[in-house]
Amino acid sequence: MKSSQDQFLLYIDVSTTTTPSYKQICPLNFDYDSGETLDTWNDLCSEFTNSIKTALDPTWSMSFKFASDDPAGVFILSKEYSTGTSASCKFRFVNLLKGTVGKQIDFTGTLSNITYSAVTEEVLQIDFDVKIYDNTTFAETDYSLSI
After folding, report:
1. φ, ψ of residue 84 in degrees (nearest 5)
2. CB-side exposure of 14: number of CA atoms within 13 Å?
3. Predicted TM-score of the model (pTM)
4. Is there a smaller number of Cβ atoms within 10 Å at the N or the C end of the chain?
5. pLDDT band (50, 70, 90) for residue 115
6. What value, to the nearest 5°, has the Cα angle with vertex 137 and ends 53 and 114?
């Protein structure tokens, strides 16, 4: 039986040019919060409150272990003090628990809350959050093996 962590495939574009160079990274953990914004009002004719979901502010939080010279790890650490466009890159998240073949989202995200610790001499554990970058949108589609 596969663990639930094996059901998530994560790809990050580590390229510093316009030609993408996606690297798969394997999470120790992967957490998601949709960050829902609700507009809520009281119905004067009943005792119930009404709510409607008006926006999403999703956050994906994850932890990884990397060799200290791993290109994806080095790339993520290079974003530690970045702001604006410099703190963003392209991502593909695949959730194999959804649908019959899995679902994916491709988007530009902002790396934030980057923390790291040396686990052994050659290995770093890196934790970080990904949020949707400035007005970037995404749609969930069926998983495609191509990047």
Report:
1. 60, -145
2. 15
3. 0.80
4. N
5. very high
6. 95
- Compute how many other C-beta atoms are within 10 angstroms of the C-beta atom of residue 1: 4
Q: Please state the domain extents for the chain.
A: 4-35+61-142
3-state SS of the chain is CCCHHHHEEEEEECCCCCCCCEEEECCCEEEEECCCEEEEEECCCCCCEEEEEEECCCEEEEEEEEECCCHHHHHHHHCCCCCHHHHEEEEEEEECCCCCCCEEEEEEEEEEEEEEEECCCCEEEEEEEEEECCCCCCCCEECCCCC
- Cβ burial 97-128 (10 Å sphere, 16+ → b, else e): eeeeebbbbbbbbbbbebebeeeeeeebbbbb
State the CB neighbour count (10 A cutoff) for residue 44: 5
Q: What is the CATH number of domain 4-35+61-142?
A: 2.30.110
First to last CA, the chain: 27
| pLDDT value at residue 3 | 67
> What would the pLDDT profile of 116-143 be if each residue is shown by its tens digit?
998 777 788 999 999 988 878 788 899 9
With pLDDT > 70 as the criterion, what percentage of the chain qualifies? 96
